[in-house]
Write a sequence for this structure.
DNA sequence: CGCCTAATTGACAAATTTCAATGGTGGTGG
DNA sequence: CCACCACCATTGAAATTTGTCAATTAGGCG
């Protein structure tokens, strides 16, 4: 997706001794000096096919990354949260569009300068590579989800991912924010808005979740949710600590 | 998928101007000196979770790359053909398994040495990056396919991709080889074996394709096939803009 | 507070899966 | 070389899931 996730990953790729550092030590730091921009909810950052002149780092807010096909069908390939990067491809043109789900602040970086910085810095390269690999792993998980999971499994996977993200900043929370619309969720999970809605209703009825307005939701049975997500073995992000009670 | 596609080759084999080259000029050349291996159809090259000690380059034959989830369901995330690379992640362990579809010859490369070679060569880095980007684009196309295409569109997409691959070596052929089983195809397209079979029958009945045994198939109406694939506009627009290197 | 749009709910339709049986291919051994 | 066997593929019918269309409800923003 070239929508690069900023998760964990430490430098296991390059094993040089650390000398004097002429360039910023992290990719995030590259963006620190850049002028920030801001767009309102619903506004397009760029469209599929646009000339890819810049990379963007989300500072605050949420973006949706999407593709459109022939008859207007839309596929959301991912949501981008603060810390995520988008546009690190070497293609001339963006392979997807990006729109603000909520008001979003971001920083921009020229593609050419970015590539130069990456090429010149043996410290930044493995960071970029790690992000690409994480992003590829996420794409694979999405392929698994879309290939053979039921509507319920898809939604539970999504909600569980959201929960994990929330807990990165608030380790004991059980409330997740859903800034996107049901249509966004549907287009992300390869379902319709009605199926998403019905599945939420069903999970609520079983006491697994409880809605808190349209854009938030409380997880009541974390371990049940995790089990229903069906990732089972392959989910190495799985933290037993995430699961409180049954 | 870390299963890196070798589409756009950079022909530096014939540019003998450069004298002393410390590292091979292409990723393919890296593997040239490696000892080749061979496995029979059905044999496992490595499994998901195995320690990722090596990268592999397919020399001859076809591999399937797959993941398994809880109750045994299998997802094939890609097929690998000669020239493709697999295992270029920086994760310690493989995120998927790889098995031979047909008897497959391959070359192996130590992960550490590979990473070192990449790090030390400003020529190899953009090649690897380009492959990763191509692979990411392929993953995205697969996500689009699985998100919102019908069985017929999925199969036509797959067959059209196969046709394009065949024509890379035989530009005017209209026969495609399908070394994998129907189950492989089904697991790749997120369908059942029966649906794949029925869809093939339907396309045959409409005179769009004609089977030639189980493992080959003639495309009779290429443009119809392309239209039914439903990729529409987003297809043939790639010209690789390689990363500037210092 | 009220409106507008998003979300939910219901009834029905369509696509795909599932289950079951038949048919065909290719490989093996006689 | 042929026949048989096992496995893969095809076909059919029924079941299930999800999508579609059409109301109704309710959140959230002005």
């Amino acid at each position: 997706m070239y929508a690069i996730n900023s998760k964990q990953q430490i430098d296991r790729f390059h094993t040089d001794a650390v000398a004097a550092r002429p360039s910023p030590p992290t990719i995030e730091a590259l963006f620190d000096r850049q002028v920030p921009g801001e767009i309102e909810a619903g506004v397009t950052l760029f469209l599929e096919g646009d000339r890819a002149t810049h990379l963007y780092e989300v500072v605050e807010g949420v973006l949706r990354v999407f593709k459109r096909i022939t008859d207007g069908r839309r596929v959301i390939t991912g949501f981008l949260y603060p810390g995520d990067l988008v546009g690190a491809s070497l293609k001339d043109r963006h392979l997807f569009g990006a729109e603000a789900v909520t008001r979003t602040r971001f920083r921009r970086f020229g593609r050419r300068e970015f590539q130069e910085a990456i090429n010149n810095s043996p410290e930044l390269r493995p960071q970029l590579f790690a992000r690409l690999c994480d992003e590829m792993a996420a794409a694979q998980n999405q392929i698994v989800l879309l290939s053979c999971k039921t509507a319920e499994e898809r939604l539970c996977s999504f909600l569980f991912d959201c929960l994990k993200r929330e807990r990165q900043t608030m380790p004991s929370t059980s409330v997740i924010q859903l800034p996107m619309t049901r249509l966004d969720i549907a287009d992300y999970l390869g379902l319709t808005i009605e199926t998403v809605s019905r599945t939420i209703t069903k999970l609520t009825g079983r006491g697994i979740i409880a809605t808190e307005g349209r854009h938030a939701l409380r997880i009541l049975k974390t371990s049940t949710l995790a089990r229903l997500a069906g990732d089972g073995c392959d989910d190495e992000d799985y933290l037993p600590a995430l699961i409180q009670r049954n």
User: Anything to note?
Assistant: Chain B touches chain A through 53 residues (CB under 8 Å). The helical segments of chain B are 27-32, 111-120, 124-148, 151-169, 182-189, 193-205, 222-229. Residues 150-151, 191-192, 194-195, 198, 213-214 of chain B lie near DNA strand C (CB under 10 Å from a C1').
